[in-house]
Design goal:
The chain has one domain (about 35-245): monomeric porin ompg (Porin, Beta Barrel), CATH 2.40.160.40. The protein is built from one helix and 17 strands. It has one helix at about 5-25; strands at about 25, 35-40, 45, 50, 55-65, 70-75, 85-95, 95-105, 120-130, 135-145, 150-155, 160-165, 170-180, 185-190, 205-220, 225-235, 240-245. The strands form three sheets. It has a twelve-stranded antiparallel beta barrel. Strands 3-4 form a two-stranded antiparallel ribbon. The protein is globular and about 60 Å long.
Length: about 250
Amino acid sequence: MKKGTVLVLVLILIIFNGYSQDISIVEKDNKSYTDLGADIVSSYVWRGLQVDASPNIQGWGEFGNDFFSVGVWASSNFNGSYTEADVYAGFALGGFNVLLTDYFVGSDDFFNFDKNTTIHVAELALQYTISDNFPLQFTFGTLIFGDDKQISSFDINGDPIFNKKNNFSSYIELMYTITHGDTEISCVAGGTTHESYFYSSERASIINLGVTASKEIKITDNFSLPISFGLTVNPELESIYAVIGITL
């Protein structure tokens, strides 16, 4: 990376760190909250898949209360060749959280919701966390609408031919988070329940084994930099990914 690019990124981090103290998390009472923030990651890895190999800036905005939340999460690389905007809504009760997410990659044809031609993908997910003392989180999500079709056959080049039936690709994940000193460590194991082109899986398989450590690194008396390092292995693809992230 060129020195000029490094200098620009450092300046952006310093500016955003000072600014985000005003907007990052605003909680005025016990009934509602607003959450705004952003990360820079060295590459975009999600559920054991490398979605984009180049650095991405990822931001989010969320509004909610103790029971309900709505928000938008977005990711883009620096040259704009990859963009994603996800809209979600969640309902929480006790340790349970029901989440409906609309994944959308690209910037064109956003308002096309025709079930046969849309590039939207909608997922309905259930999350359950046992307790604060034993923070084991279970997630089960199924794609219920959109660009997730069953493979009916393959062409002469080995590329899949899809039919019009929804594949209902499903993902199961266990995550356990521990705190050691000032470092938070999250361990993840996730997999698919059946064949899924969406998850690059030919069968029910483990696609996501990973560990991520995060902590705040003190730069000066008034400036600290939240940083994370994650290592992900996808046994199905025989791939490994390392990701460095900085929270703005």
